[in-house]
Design a protein that fits this description.
The structure holds two protein chains of two kinds. Chain A is mostly helical. Chain A is 69% helix and 0% strand. Classes of the chains: A mainly alpha, B mainly alpha.
Chain lengths: 169, 143
């Protein structure tokens, strides 16, 4: 049987655990700097490039964009202005996460509900887009896209994808 | 998602660029996989040194790339060509097939870094399909 003091200590720690967000992501300095550096220097065309690549490489992802018009070929997709515009929207969404690295989950709460309830996007498609973005960044950075940089970048995208999936039920 | 004539042409074209640098590319792809997806290290506990660019990693990267090279020349019959290697993967190596996708992704990342202009979305599509077919053939004998 614990003493009153011991019980209070136990209660304190239980409260501490509840108050602490055990899902908080821990970023190393290297990861933080890498992610901020990549997104700080990113060209505007990266969003459209990654998004159009996803629609070409994984054509079933086109199912959500019936209103975008002509997506009948890789050339048509890459020339489609609505595709390009949406690529920019996606990139801006990612920039938001970069500015809120310590609370991506909270930053994306509404976006998650939107993708689950209104847009009804299969979450696996987020991973496909993330892979295409990684490849676009690799193409831009060449040798600078080292294994460690890739690991940091993909960790960021994994957190983004996980936060987007959070409100699905 | 079988390979069209266009896919095969795209794969042969990009492989033509990859081949002269396949030692470096293979080494980089495998090293990268071990760093970015540390769980894949579990299959290499018999390697003394798993650090990027180590001799054993490099050699294994070569092995893989040489085999993929042969696959490029057997795209019409990957199942038949990889039959015995599939047996090895099924009975001895027992690599979870999810890892083939991981290695394929790492290889494509390295290819994109080396050949940003040639690795267009269409080429990416064909290469991804090709590696998926290789993975399928490799896991054919699993069950």
């Amino acid at each position: 049987m614990l003493s009153l003091q011991q019980q209070e200590t136990v209660h304190f720690f239980i409260l501490l655990i509840y108050l602490t967000d055990v899902n908080m992501v821990a970023w190393t300095d290297f990861e933080r700097e890498t992610i901020q550096s990549i997104f700080g220097k990113i060209d505007e065309d990266v969003g459209p490039a990654a998004f159009s690549r996803c629609l070409v490489v994984y054509p079933w992802t086109q199912r959500y964009f019936g209103r975008f018009g002509n997506m009948g070929s890789a050339a048509a997709i890459q020339a489609n202005p609505m595709v390009a515009a949406h690529g920019k929207v996606v990139l801006n969404g990612l920039q938001k996460a970069v500015k809120n690295l310590d609370n991506i989950k909270g930053t994306y709460t509404e976006l998650s509900v939107l993708h689950s309830e209104t847009l009804r996007v299969d979450p696996d498609n987020f991973r496909l887009l993330a892979d295409c973005l990684t490849i676009v960044i690799a193409a831009k950075m060449g040798a600078d896209f080292t294994a460690e940089v890739q690991a940091a970048f993909q960790k960021f995208l994994a957190v983004v994808v996980s936060s987007l999936c959070r409100q699905y039920y | 998602m079988s390979l069209s004539a266009k896919d095969k042409a795209n794969v042969k074209a990009i492989w033509g660029k990859i081949l002269p640098k396949s030692d470096d590319i293979g080494d980089q792809a495998l090293s990268r996989m071990l760093v970015v997806y540390p769980q894949t290290k579990t299959y290499f506990s018999h390697f003394a040194d798993l650090s990027p660019g180590s001799a054993q990693v490099r050699k294994h990267g070569d092995t893989i790339m040489n085999k993929i090279d042969e696959c490029v020349n057997h795209m019409d019959n990957l199942g038949g060509f990889l039959s015995s290697l599939s047996e090895v993967h099924a009975t001895k190596l027992r690599v979870d097939p999810a890892n083939f996708k991981i290695l394929a992704h790492c290889l494509l990342v390295v290819v994109a870094a080396y050949f940003p202009n040639e690795f267009t979305p269409e080429v990416h599509l064909s290469a991804d399909k090709f590696l998926q077919q290789v993975a399928l053939a490799l896991s054919e004998k699993y069950r």
